[in-house]
UniProtKB/TrEMBL annotation:
Pfam families, sorted: BPD_transp_1 (PF00528)
Keyword Nucleotide-binding: no
Topology within the bilayer: Multi-pass membrane protein
Gene: ugpE
The UniProt record lists the keyword Signal: no
Domain (ABC transmembrane type-1) ranges: 62-248
Protein name: sn-glycerol-3-phosphate transport system permease protein UgpE
Protein family (similarity comment): Belongs to the binding-protein-dependent transport system permease family.
Amino acid sequence: MPRSLAKVTDHLILILGCVVMVGPVALLVVDLLSAPNLWPQFQTLFGADGVLGYDVSLWRMLGNSVLLALGVATLACTLSLLAGFALVFFPLPGREWIFGLMLLAMFFPIETRILPSFAVVHQLGLLNSHAGMVLPIVASGFGVLVFRQFLRQVPKELIEAARLDGAHPMRCLRDIILPISAPMIAALFAIFFVLGWNQYVWPLMLSTTRQDMVTVVSGVVRAGPDAVQGQALALLAMLPPGLVILLSQRWLMRGLTSGIH
């Protein structure tokens, strides 16, 4: 194939991919802008004390979504980094088996274990709480995998030299591992933020008696795709994760390409 034809083919594939990814969002925006009484609908959403039949404001719904996304991203990154650090730099007996068990979390997302997770959260007394909403989602085999592969590239002599100078493991983690892991942490934080933000079934199931824990994604489903308020909520629900991905795009490329080998 001639080089010029190969370039045209590559660009056509990229354009097709962009259309597939951006097309639904563009159609949503066009449909929303053509809706009658658009501005009053937005005023109703942002100014009302209760929306879509919920006794909760849109600001509270946004706050619940942000809290869920930030909680999942922060805890998942922290636990994944600590697990990867322990698996690489500590002579744990059977650590390959431990790593394999951790990877099982990749194949069992919260939707596949929702009933046992609900039972455990109920027994712990965490129903209708933000802690119960966040904690069952933070276990991430993907995060452990990425951090383990990344930290295996760090020369062990560097850690051994620090240990000979009297640095304890937590100081090695703070002074050596954290600075060089910043791109990876930023990349995974963005991924986990989007994962937490897009949760629908688990927050809806957990908040059995509290409407003030409703998230924006739950509101979109309740409004329906044909309602103007539902379309407005859908557009608002895409803005925070989209902004996070755009701001962390450089870190995503640096972090993930250096971490998976």
